[in-house]
């Protein structure tokens, strides 16, 4: 009888041990907090690029990872409370895009890892001390507008040989260094500058009226999550006031804008997933060097060019990465 009790007890203990091992082998569902500047609709392509990057690395939503998103709908004032909400919920990592979101995240936490996608230099912004060793809890993928603006102005001049005056449309969240770089690049090509600052969407039309009355030959929309979230309105006004407009990102041109030259934001989002992967596997964000954008694209909307009566030079057409014939 004693032997039987011993056998049963050992068997129960063995089964319990087996159950414990099975539970220990079940991966913990990791939680990614995604802080978006715009809305799910306007940022759908970029979010899908990020998700695809995660899938390529074996992170499958619902199986070993979950993404909890919060959206500011283009309102910078909402970013700080949304970042705080995600951090308080206990996410393992915070993923953000754009300077305002980065600042909000940085002010919210010094411990939760932060991965960013940024169209500016985070060192110039004062967010990290170095690209090679960012330190702290932030790292990611960044572009440097200051190095792109000269090329953008050259393309605009090539597209519009008689260009003599350009309006620079900017939002306060854009760095002063970006505005300065744009001014220097334009004047270096003999192009006069008209600076048009906007803080609210209600000011967009007044800005385009000012550009038209100021005899600007074109508008250059400077990088801004606020402006990007409202690109449909900007594109509509450029069309109505018949002003050729230059943008940094392909998505503007896909939505009906005239021309863009800049980093592939989709590629940057895919690459950001590798940072999430390494951090979730134990790497410290401050030890991961910030990567710079490596894929750039020139995109032209031929339908929009036709509506403006522009004949795009062959020299530009031959270099374009994508020609859009409908919008």
Offer a few descriptive terms.
alpha/beta, elongated, Rossmann fold, six-stranded parallel beta sheet, 13 helices, 327 residues
Q: How does this structure look, described?
A:
The strands form 2 sheets. Strands 7-6-8-9-10-12-13 form a 7-stranded mixed β-sheet, sandwiched between helices. The chain has a 6-stranded parallel β-sheet with strand order 2-1-3-4-5-11, with helices on both faces. Strand 6, helix 6 and strand 7 form a beta-alpha-beta unit. The radius of gyration is 24 Å and the shape is elongated. It is built from 13 helices and 13 strands. It folds into 2 domains: 30-144 and 264-292, 3-Layer(aba) Sandwich (Rossmann fold), CATH 3.40.50.2300; 145-263 and 296-324, Rossmann fold (3-Layer(aba) Sandwich). The model is unreliable at 6-15 and 19-24 (pLDDT under 50). With 327 residues, it is α/β, with parallel strands linked by helices. The chain has helices at 2-25, 44-56, 79-88, 99-108, 145-159, 176-188, 204-213, 225-228, 231-240, 250-254, 265-280, 302-307, 314-317, and strands at residues 30-36, 65-71, 93-97, 114-118, 138-142, 165-170, 192-197, 218-221, 245-247, 259-263, 291-292, 296-301, 322-324.
How far the N terminus sits from the C terminus, by CA atoms, comes to 84 Å
Unreliable stretches: 6-15, 19-24
CATH fold call of the largest domain: Rossmann fold
What CATH architecture of the largest domain would you give?
Answer: 3-Layer(aba) Sandwich
Instruction: Report the biggest beta sheet as strand number plus sense, adding barrel if it closes.
Output: 7 strands, mixed
